[in-house]
Amino acid sequence: MAKLVFALNQSLDGYVDHTEFAPDPALFRHFIDDVRGLAGSVYGRRMYEVMRYWDDDHSEWDEEQRDYAAAWRSQPKWVVSRSLKSVGPNATLVADDIEATIRGLKVRLDGEIEVSGPELARSLTDLGLVDEYRLYLHPVVLGRGKPLFAGPRPPLRFVASDRIGKDVIRLTYVPA
């Protein structure tokens, strides 16, 4: 049975914005290895549209970026959206019965399925489907933006912390 993991980068004050901070080389390597090990990923529409960047090759990419793109392209993806009409390669559009679809994935797959997108994570949390939260704290204070948590969460229990790269701390929690 798969474990559903919500993992996302955030500022110290709790906001997500991929344009405001980027991973250092060690953290980027961590993400490459993480993506390679996933059973798949579930995306909300906005996060999926950001990640579609990795579907196309870019001449300016270095070896690490090419490695990440290859890992991302190879994994199955489920995109939760009522507005999209189609999705890219190796992706499945989920427009209806999200709960049944995600429960089915958890039963059918082994390993970890990563959830990306604060609103989607809230919906899946409300359904009791998120098994673990991994918060990648960057030493940046934004003071504005989209909050990592799009609403209240049930109580969480701290299970681990890791320093990754020079400046990022990953905090891991499970529902209490």
From TrEMBL:
<protein>
    <submittedName>
        <fullName>Dihydrofolate reductase</fullName>
    </submittedName>
</protein>
<dbReference type="InterPro" id="IPR024072">
    <property type="entry name" value="DHFR-like_dom_sf"/>
</dbReference>
<feature type="domain" description="Bacterial bifunctional deaminase-reductase C-terminal">
    <location>
        <begin position="3"/>
        <end position="169"/>
    </location>
</feature>
<dbReference type="GO" id="GO:0009231">
    <property type="term" value="P:riboflavin biosynthetic process"/>
</dbReference>
<dbReference type="Pfam" id="PF01872">
    <property type="entry name" value="RibD_C"/>
</dbReference>
<dbReference type="GO" id="GO:0008703">
    <property type="term" value="F:5-amino-6-(5-phosphoribosylamino)uracil reductase activity"/>
</dbReference>
<dbReference type="InterPro" id="IPR002734">
    <property type="entry name" value="RibDG_C"/>
</dbReference>
